[in-house]
Input
Amino acid sequence: MMKTNSIFKRNFCGRRAVAKTFCLSLSAFCVLFFAGNISAQQNNSKRRTKTKVSQVQPKVVISTSDKTANAVTLVNRVEADYLSGEASVSVNPKQPTVIRLGLAQNATSVVEFPSIDQIYYIHEGNPKLVTIFQSPTKETDRSVTLYPGEGFLPTSVAGQKELSVTITMQMKSGLVIVLEIVPAPDIRQNAHRCVLNYNLAEVVAARRAAGLKVNLGDEVAPKQVKPTRAVSSLMTANLSKESDSIVSDNTGNVSPVSVVEIAVGGSGKTESDSSKRKMKTGTQLSRVVNKKLAEAIKSPKEKFTVWSPATKGLSLSTAKVVEIDDFQRLLIVAVKNETTDALRLLDEMPELQIQTVDKSGNSLQLERLTRKYTETTALAGAIPAGAIVYYAVVYENPVLGANQKLLVSAAHDRAADAPVVASTANQLDNKENR
Output
């Protein structure tokens, strides 16, 4: 019995050891199997991540190409040597100005000018390529509109000469402006609006200094007066109607009256040989007036030393009276706009007057003195804000009494009843050489 139990115990323990070994082996196998699966899953996860990265790459390439395209566009815009979009140009009054504008198909371009100037004429280089809109109010317009023709296209062949068209305009002031129109490839490079800026007084002064004509289109021959002796200041009512002077290009607006006393020379010189002297007229008179006006404009600080106090924005100053000949005198008047708004003088301004005073200096009578000839830097009497315009007025030399003075007045439409008075030294400038 003891042997049997002993044998049973041995067999049982042996089997138990085998089972235990088998379980350990099975456990190890399971561990290795699951570890292999986890490793495989991790490897698959890593592979999938790499795949996603490769799919993102094309997006990065697209973004880079967009940046490259934008850079090319900027380079093309820099190469364009014409104006586009909204532009403002300051014009040099001393020389013709060439302005290059881009004009695209299916677009228009508007060119604007100062309101105090007008277009005198327009020359179109090729109306089939670029046309100007024929406005029904073109005589009073202060702008032109440009339209492209069907054949006005940019060159498509490298090295081919660029197409362009010129439009030449001359303003009433005499200023010459050249528009060079260049075909733009698209509307984004079209010059939609271009504003031209210039000082009208500087334009007129520069043209007069060069001996060129101003106020184009207003050529009116001055009426000539028969040579006569100097007329008394109180005899204005008896003068012939033929002695009416040429009216400067002013409009019919009113303005503040400014009065300044004029420097007048003595009249005690004998004129025994005056009948042998000729009165300057026509071209000869105009040449003298233009010369003296140009000299005054070139050195205004020397010529106009005394200014009247400003009254309602208007002040005056006069240069010394110039003796043109034995019968005629020339007075150059500077009119300054002290306000921030444009003003416009009345017709017949500036006006010359003879004032009679009593012993106390009180005014007794004012008589208008007829002007014979007038030159001015003001277009249609307009004075821009803060600007100075000049008038050269020729009149017949009057005989003044001891209690009489020669005055000049100017008026605008905002203070006609507020005159300002100033006096200047009674001096006469050197006589103009015959």
